[in-house]
Amino acid sequence: MKLIIFSLSILTILLVSVSSDLASDRAALVALRSAVGGRSLLWNLSSSPCSWTGVNCSQNRVVELRLPGMGLSGQLPIAIGNLTQLQTLSLRFNALSGPIPSDFANLSSLRNLYLQGNAFSCEIPEFLFTLQNLIRLNLANNNFTGSISGSVNNLTRLGTLYLENNKLSGSIPDIGLASLVQFNVSFNQLNGSIPKALSGKPRSAFQGNSLCGKPLVSCDGSKDSDSKLSGGAIAGIVIGCVLVASLILILLICLCARRSGKKTEARDIAPAKQAEIEISGDNTSNGLSGGPKNDAKSNENKNMVIFRKASRVFDLDHLLKASAEVLGKGTFGTAYKASLDKRVAVVVKRLKDVTVSEKEFRAKMEVVGAMDHQNLVPVRAYYFSRDEKLLVYDYMPMGSLSALLHGNRGAGRTPLNWDTRSNIALGAARGIAYLHSKAPGFSHGNIKSSNILLTTSYEAHVSDFGLAQLARPGPTSTPNRVDGYRAPEVTDARKISQKADVYSFGVLLLELLTGKAPTHALTNDEGVDLPRWVQSVVREEWTAEVFDLELLRYQNVEEYMVQLLQIAINCTAQYPDKRPAMEEVTSQIEELCRSSNQKNIDK
Ligand SMILES: *[C@@H]1O[C@H](CO)[C@@H](O)[C@H](O)[C@H]1NC(C)=O
Ligand SMILES: *[C@@H]1O[C@H](CO)[C@@H](O)[C@H](O)[C@H]1NC(C)=O
Ligand SMILES: *[C@@H]1O[C@H](CO)[C@@H](O)[C@H](O)[C@H]1NC(C)=O
Ligand SMILES: *[C@@H]1O[C@H](CO)[C@@H](O)[C@H](O)[C@H]1NC(C)=O
Ligand SMILES: *[C@@H]1O[C@H](CO)[C@@H](O)[C@H](O)[C@H]1NC(C)=O
Ligand SMILES: *[C@@H]1O[C@H](CO)[C@@H](O)[C@H](O)[C@H]1NC(C)=O
Ligand SMILES: *[C@@H]1O[C@H](CO)[C@@H](O)[C@H](O)[C@H]1NC(C)=O
Ligand SMILES: *[C@@H]1O[C@H](CO)[C@@H](O)[C@H](O)[C@H]1NC(C)=O
Fold first, then answer.
1. Which InterPro entries match (predicted)?
2. Which residue has a Cα nearest atom 2 of ligand 7?
């Protein structure tokens, strides 16, 4: 009996201590919140802290706290040190300042510490190097001063040490950690020589300091060895100079040649080349002419159905006489630019492999032709005959989002900023949401960045909608690219749905955020299966590394980037019924654009 009472009391003590630990974690989190604010920390204080945004528990203790880009500001209070089971702490991209508080010394389970992108100052405290479990330490883009402690070597599991863009001075200690894979101390005030053990790291990891030694220039003044030059060396230098000069000349010539050709290259899906549109292979001189003979022309014009007049009236005759230029081979056929006169151009899309009957085609085109919204590229007209199926669209001179994102990545490229990208996302979302709302069950079927065309003010117009149910994708289209956008449940390209559109749109958002082109995971293309890649990276707490480098320079909007990323991840859920409707996605992006514009105005 005594024994039972004894064990019961032990059990109660255990229970009490377990719940009081979570209570202590809770108290620490509440203290943190009231000290650094953050209007985004809408924690429901009457529910368990484990359900709060950014908090993750294991065995009734807080093990992860991730509050990236939450607008936290001010100095960290003495509080986080009470979360003694914490393994991951991420406070990156906030506006926190002051020193790292001393109670961090008690975070002995900490594995990942992400404090980059704040305004932390003072020295990097020595006690950080007593946290034996640390694997990733990112203190980059802060205001840390002082030197880098040699005690770094005590962290035997350390894999990442990012210290770039601080005010660290002195020399780099002899860091000999075999585990260290990622290392960066660039843009500090470090001097002296780079330790041998780090000489294998890339040059860019050391730039912006007064350092010397491998991989940078050698430390012993190279002037000494240069003072006595042999004749052979001089000859070598002269030859070298001549070679370099001619190389530069060749490069310049190449660059100039490319410049002149750049305009079309960046805009078009494929390099544009002048070509005549020859229909049904008849050997007639006219660009678009051919097919039925001239005596059947009245018949041809009957086959031409015009939905809405362009700023200029045109009929088939005009198209036939137009000078044409190949714009590119798309999924369902080749697109040509037909210039009706100097100012007016239209795009003529020639469908290959139309799989439906004439009646079905015409019925479907009636639906497609009725679609009219400012974020769509409307169908102006179509032409249907036995041999030819043509669609006529407005010409969009700025080309596609795909060309804008992936074309001309080298020097001279204008970076695509957050405002432009988020507005493109919003425009595309509105266009697609309109398609979904206009006709029951209507879906685009082929959402991808090369089908998002842009006006000169970078307004997004969705094109090519409704073609997936009319035609079979041609063999000349790039199937891998298409597959990269295709929802996992879609096995037949014609059996599409609105939820499959939402998936493709999610991939498009990921493409906008990461700058990476999606391809199917099974292909060995240079692209990636974006949803899977992003999910794996985000799970490993590398969110910042997901984003396009061009976006990372806009740190004040990281919060919104993370929000858009979350929307994209929701859209690319594996199961269709887990994906939100396009209308909901659109209003979320609207809200996000509104807040981020407001923030820019406030600044
Ligand atoms: C942290 O824990 C100590 C000791 O248990 C306690 O006195 C202190 O109030 C706690 N701090 C916070 C912010 O919860
Ligand atoms: C907060 O949590 C409690 C308990 O879980 C719940 O009843 C309440 O509705 C929640 N309040 C809000 C605003 O979500
Ligand atoms: C919490 O952490 C576990 C293990 O790391 C992970 O599987 C789970 O997805 C996390 N939950 C949340 C809400 O982040
Ligand atoms: C670490 O925790 C111990 C025991 O809870 C406590 O006495 C000590 O003050 C803490 N250290 C710091 C720096 O807060
Ligand atoms: C870093 O500190 C200096 C003064 O020491 C201050 O002028 C500067 O604004 C700080 N930088 C940041 C990012 O807080
Ligand atoms: C690192 O290890 C060395 C040698 O064991 C020890 O002298 C030093 O105090 C340690 N540094 C820290 C910060 O624990
Ligand atoms: C590095 O800079 C410090 C001052 O910041 C100076 O005292 C020291 O001599 C310098 N060391 C070398 C090797 O130049
Ligand atoms: C180091 O950081 C700088 C500045 O952010 C960056 O330009 C460079 O590419 C980085 N290098 C490595 C190897 O991480």
1. At_inactive_RLKs, Kinase-like_dom_sf, Leu-rich_rpt, LRR_dom_sf, LRR_N_plant-typ, Prot_kinase_dom, Protein_kinase_ATP_BS, Ser-Thr/Tyr_kinase_cat_dom
2. 170
